[in-house]
């Protein structure tokens, strides 16, 4: 994981708005939620990702792509042959979230620029 400071204009990788700060994050290498035990992304993670990335399909796609690659690498390394989900199942597990993303409206951190006439 990177130790570089996060850009303040980008959402947290795992927004915590719905769970109130409770950590519904993946536990590697099995990719189950640390809090509820569901497969990651769990239902709370999914809701938080949709909320955090609202209006930012490209950013969510990149995030999901990184999670997909890490998840596939871990599961295919740790589970016996035939015990891991198929690549198609993993693809749907991660990228299926994109179908639920609302693309209308600005990102949550978007704020209107000040009226230049008021400067
Ligand atoms: Zn969870």
Automatic annotation (TrEMBL):
<protein>
    <submittedName>
        <fullName>Uncharacterized protein</fullName>
    </submittedName>
</protein>
